[in-house]
Design brief:
By secondary structure, this protein is an alpha/beta fold. It has 2 domains: 291 residues, NAD(P)-binding Rossmann-like Domain (Rossmann fold), CATH 3.40.50.720; 31 residues, no CATH class. The protein is 38% helix and 12% strand. The protein contains 8 helices and 8 strands; from the N terminus they run βαβαβαβαβαβαββαα. An 8-stranded mixed sheet has the order 3-2-1-4-5-6-7-8, with helices on both faces. Bound molecules: NADP nicotinamide-adenine-dinucleotide phosphate. The site of NADP nicotinamide-adenine-dinucleotide phosphate has 27 residues, from helix 1. It holds the Pfam family adh_short. Keywords: Oxidoreductase. This is NAD(P)-binding protein. One of its GO terms (molecular function) is oxidoreductase activity.
Length: 329
Amino acid sequence: MPPRAYKRTILITGATDGIGKQIANSLAANHRENFVIVHGRSPTKCSQTVATIMAENKLEMECNVEYIAADFSTVKEVVRMAEELKIRFPRLNTFIACASVLINRRSTSADGLELGFQINHLSHFYLWNAMLPLLEANAPSRIITVGSSLHAMGSIDYDDLMAEKLYDKYLQYSRTKLMNHMTTMAIHRLLYTHGVHFSVTANVIDAEEPAENHHDVTCLSASRSYLCSRGNGVHTIQRLVEAPELAHVSGKYFDSMGKEIRSTTVAVDERAQQRLWETDEKLCASLDVPSPRPSPPTVDLMHLGSLEAARKHLLENNNVADKFVLPAV
Ligand SMILES: NC(=O)c1ccc[n+]([C@@H]2O[C@H](COP(=O)([O-])OP(=O)(O)OC[C@H]3O[C@@H](n4cnc5c(N)ncnc54)[C@H](OP(=O)(O)O)[C@@H]3O)[C@@H](O)[C@H]2O)c1
C-alpha cells in the first residue's frame, strides 16, 4: 500500500515501454499528488522501469512508484492481478489502459484465444469490471483508454472473432482498439446508471501522432515506441488524469493534442456495445472467469431526452432510480 495518502493512485497497464512508460514518468514527477503503479508482463522489466523513472525524476527518497506484473495472455494472471491490486492498492482511483500488441502472424494464447484480442481487449474488459467497485468507492476516479484512430478501420466480425478465417495484423489490432473504445463508452453509461454521475469518468484518447508532426525531427524514433512527447498524447493523457476542469467530463473522445473529436458511429452504437459486452462476458464465463459486473443498460440514458425521462426509465426497467440523483442545473 502507498505509504501515505496521495491524491491519486494510478494504474497504467503496459507501462514498461513506449507511451505507457512516458505517461508513468510524467505522472510520477508530480510526486506529491500521484502514486503510480507500473504494469508490465515481466517483473524484471517492471522493476527496471520503476528504477529508471525514480532515477530520472530524482525520486530516490519519494517512493511513489510501484509495479505489478501480469501477463495479459493468460486470463488467470489477469484475475490474480485484479485481486492483488485490491489488496495492495485499495485507494486506486485512476485506471489508464495502455497495454497493447500488434502481432505479425496469428497466434493463440494458452487459453485458446487469438493473442491480440486477449491481450489488448479481453484482459482490459475483465480488469475494468473487476476494478469498477474500487474506482467507485474511491471517487473521484478517472478511467482513460489509450486508443487509436485505426479503430475506425473495420467493424467487428462476430463470425470470426478469433480471426481464424482471415488474419491481418492491422485489421485485428484496429478491431481490438475499437472494442476497447466501445467498452469504455459502455462503462461510461453503466456508471451513469449507478448514479455516480461523473464522479467516475471514462474517456478515450487517440494516441496517434497528428499528421503535421510526421516530419518533425523531434519525433524521430529508433524503435516503434514513441519518443516525441508533444504529439503522442502523453500531455493530453496527463491532463485527463490531473486537470480539475476535466473532473466531470466523461464519455468523450480526444485527439492526441487534447481536442475533443467525434467517435465513429460504430463505437458509440449502444446495441453494438451491448453485443460486445455480452460476448466478452460469455468468453470470460467459458474460461471459468465470471464477469463480476452487470451489463450496461441497453438504452443510452443520455439519449432519453431529459434526466427526468432517464429516471423514469430506470424506475421502470432497472429499479435503481433510488440511487439516481439529479445533478444540479
Ligand atoms: N505507438 C503508436 O504508434 C501508437 C499509435 C496510436 C495508439 N497507440 C496506442 O498507445 C498504446 C501504447 O502503444 P506503444 O506503441 O507505446 O506500446 P509499446 O511500446 O509496444 O508497449 C506496449 C506495452 O504493453 C505491454 N504488453 C505487451 N504484451 C503484454 C502482455 N502479454 N501482458 C502484459 N503487458 C503486455 C508491454 O510490456 P513488455 O514491455 O513486457 O512488452 C509494454 O509495456 C497502445 O494502446 C497503442 O494501441 C500507439
